[in-house]
Amino acid sequence: MSIRETVARQSWWPDVAPGRWTRAVGYTAVGASGIPVDMLATNTVAGLGGHYLVATVAGYLLALTWNFSLQRRYVFDGGEAIIPEYLNYIAVDGVAAALRIGVVVSLLQGVSRETAILATRTGRLVPLLDGGSIAPVTVASLAGIAVASAVGFLLTDTFVFGGTA
């Protein structure tokens, strides 16, 4: 029995067309290829003293264009109207970006820019005055990417490319 058949037998698992599974895997693989692009931009801007939100937006925008071009070519059947697809992709990704930024802000809230930069450079958790700890910019950004990716696929598959492969 295949993994798909095993998962499909679970009563709690939604019935999803096999093509959507394939697109989800492709979307995730392309998204993963955009993480180094995103992280390089994010950490470069933060390392140069930019605010973590500016760094996050810079990384996101660069990775957005990277991902769109690869997803359109290899994952979804992009039509001839590349500009409308790209604009829809930007809009859909804007929703995902808002979720990502919300995750980053919630993880780094109350951390000064200098502390966030130090944490990024050392890769260590930053102790807070209340005894808790906060993740550095890189970990917070990766957590944001995970949330944005799940929502981004569902919206991209449905609203940008119409659920076709």
What's the topology here?
Layout: H1 3-8, H2 18-47, H3 52-74, H4 82-108, H5 113-122, E1 126-127, E2 133-134, H6 137-160
Antiparallel strand pairs: 1-2
Helix pairs in contact: 2-3, 2-6, 3-4, 4-6
Describe the structure.
The chain has 165 residues and is an all-alpha fold. The chain has one domain. It has helices at residues 3-8, 18-47, 52-74, 82-108, 113-122, 137-160, and strands at residues 126-127, 133-134. Strands 1-2 form a two-stranded antiparallel sheet. A hairpin with a 5-residue loop joins strand 1 and strand 2. Helix 3 (52-74) runs antiparallel to helix 4 (82-108). The longest helix has 30 residues, at 18-47. The protein is elongated.
Provide a quick synopsis of the model.
The protein has 165 residues and is mainly α. It has 6 helices and 2 strands, in the order αααααββα. The protein is elongated and about 45 Å long.
Structural class: mainly alpha
Strand % is under 5%
Radius of gyration: 18 Å
Strand order of the largest sheet: 1-2
What is the H/E order? HHHHHEEH
The end-to-end distance, rounded to whole angstroms, is 25 Å
Integer count of domains:
1
Task: Round the mean pLDDT to the nearest integer and report it.
Answer: 78
Number of helices: 6
Give the overall shape, derived from the CA principal axes: elongated
Strand tally, please? 2
**Biggest sheet, open or closed, and with what strands and sense?**
2 strands, antiparallel
Helicity level, as a percent range?
over 70%
Low-confidence stretches: none
